[in-house]
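step=predict obj=Type IV pilus assembly protein PilP n=168
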Amino acid sequence: MRIALACVVALSLTGCSGGINDLRQYVAQVQASKVAYEEPEPVSIEVTAVPYQVDHLRSPFRLERAHSPDPPSQKSCPQPDTVRNKGALETFALDSFELKGVMTEAEQRWALVRAVDGRVHRLRKGDYLGLYHGRVAEIGINQLTVTEWIPDARGCWTQRDTSIAMAR
């Protein structure tokens, strides 16, 4: 076994010793040759300066107030009562209410309305509900009419009647 291993090592080492003369000759030839590549001279491009003046524009790093038109006065267009305290039913959208029934008690008509929270509330004419300052205008036999104040682009408010019908 030792003899076979010694033969393999001897053959390997003899294969590495020859053939290096060609490599030495090629390296000497490459080092002796002159470089054929010459770097071209850079071409100068003439650039014209353009003045950039931004003194009259706003700074993007400073917060400026938006210019809004003057709000209309209370007398120039109708406004809802925004000073009053809002009720619990004014936190729900008007389309989330369901009219469950109408009852009359001593010449007073009441509407039974179920809100999103699952509770049934008793409303009479003049009570507030909905997000847009809605007020009960009329209680019919099968429907409830609510007058809402809808804001417009000018800062004024427009009244809109919405009916909630009883589900069958």
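step=describe
The chain has a mean pLDDT of 83.
step=end
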